[in-house]
Write a structure and sequence with these properties.
Layout (H helix, E strand, L loop, with lengths): L2 E5 L20 E2 L2 E2 H11 L4 E6 L6 H5 L8 E6 L5 H8 L11 E6 L2 E3 L3 H11 L3 E7 L7 E2 L12 E2 L11 E10 H4 L10 H11 L4 E5 L4 E3 L3 H13 L14 E3 L4 E2 L4 E3 L2 E3 L4 E2 L4 E3 L2 E2 L4 E2 L4 E3 L2 E2 L4 E2 L4 E3 L2 E2 L4 E2 L4 E2 L4 E2 L4 E2 L11
Parallel strand pairs: 1-4, 1-6, 4-5, 8-12, 14-17, 15-18, 16-19, 17-20, 18-21, 19-22, 20-23, 21-24, 22-25, 23-26, 24-27, 25-28, 26-29, 27-30
Antiparallel strand pairs: 2-3, 6-11, 7-13, 8-11, 9-10
Helix pairs in contact: 3-6
């Protein structure tokens, strides 16, 4: 297998305000756009040609990655005029593929951080003679995901979307967002309209008697769809819990990008990333957080499990816990922002305007 389709067209609504100015796959994780990690892992598995299915802020991708030669890849870009869903996006780029009808094509979502053994998935696909093979992973609470039960041989028996009652939860196996398609199967997806592979393509194939094979791979897996998950994923990359050949430096407790200035007594822990040209002042503490390029953490501030957008400023003695600060926002001194708080891009929060009591 030498080619793949990467689905990077989503709007990243759950990640706002991070995705107001930047498409989700281009938000930095462990110092580089998240997409870089996916491309590097695909290349390490032997993929040479990747078609990016783009839509939202599509103009951002090609100027950064170009033709892919810097990563040892051949990249092409196809932009949807209107959002087509996962299946529609796959079908929309099919003309750029070079594979023969029976050859495998890898397809993966642009917001999944995973340690998947890509070569093993392709081998499973070939050995089983499947029309489509799916990466499956096991989760403790599958209610937010699509369940994929399989028989004793790994053959998929059903697709159950987001079950809610105990009776509906018949397995802990979920669709993990990476697939291998027989090339000819892609051509059966309808054109010119939105199609969901999860809700339409896969169930229809199963109903028509197609062979869909599941491969359970329970290595590292994380859906980066929320800010909290994105921050955690970045920290896991820095600390080496999530594998990637694209992390720009040694794995450890912190990653400081070129041009950043960190005071000698500032403490950076928990897989924290300090972006290029960012500043961390005296006595500041940054734990398990991502501080993007050009941001400023003023003296004495505490930033925990949070994401601080590019060019944002966090005032002295301000305390962030599980917060998201948009690009260019300014949070004044002596504020306290806790779990779930999001400050929009370029917003200004005056000094000492928000404070949580100790029992909140």
């Amino acid at each position: 297998m030498t080619e793949a389709i990467l689905l990077v067209g989503g709007k990243g609504t759950r990640l706002r305000p991070l995705t107001v100015n930047t498409p989700k796959p281009m938000v930095p994780a462990a110092g580089v756009p998240f997409l870089t990690h996916q491309l590097a892992r695909a290349r390490a598995a032997g993929v040479e040609h990747i078609v990016l299915a783009t839509s939202y802020l599509a103009e951002v991708f090609e100027p950064h990655f170009g033709d892919g030669s810097a990563l040892g890849l051949h990249l092409e870009y196809v932009t949807e005029d209107e959002p087509l869903g996962t299946g529609g996006a796959i079908r929309n780029v099919a003309s750029r593929l070079h594979s023969g009808p029976d050859e495998p094509v890898l397809i993966f979502n642009g917001d999944i951080l995973t340690g998947l053994d890509i070569e093993a998935l392709v081998d499973t696909h070939s050995a089983s003679g499947a029309d489509v093979s799916l990466h499956l992973t096991r989760v403790e609470d599958p209610r937010a995901f699509g369940l994929v039960p399989t028989d004793a041989t790994g053959r998929v028996t059903a697709f159950l979307e987001k079950p809610q009652t105990p009776e509906e939860i018949v397995t802990d196996q979920i669709n993990a967002g990476a697939y291998v398609f027989r090339r000819s199967v892609i051509d059966t997806i309808p054109t010119g309209r939105p199609v969901s592979v999860e809700r339409e393509t896969f169930p229809d194939l199963l109903a028509d008697g197609a062979h869909l094979q599941g491969m359970v791979d329970s290595t590292y897996w994380l859906d980066l769809g929320t800010p909290q998950a994105f921050v955690r994923g970045s920290a896991d990359l820095v600390q080496g819990r999530a594998p990637s050949p694209a992390v720009p430096g040694r794995c450890g407790d912190r990653l400081v990008m070129p041009g950043a200035v960190v005071a000698a007594d500032a403490k950076l822990t928990g897989g924290t990333v300090i972006g290029a040209d960012a500043v961390v002042g005296e006595g500041a503490r940054v734990e398990g957080s991502t501080v993007l390029a050009g941001a400023v953490i003023e003296p004495g501030a505490v930033v925990q499990d949070s994401l601080v957008g590019a060019g944002a400023r966090i005032g002295s003695r301000t305390h962030l816990v599980g917060a998201v600060i948009g690009d260019g926002a300014q949070v004044g001194a002596d504020n306290e922002l806790r779990e779930g708080v999001r400050i929009w891009c370029d917003a200004v929060l005056p000094a000492a305007s928000v404070r949580f009591s100790s029992d909140q």
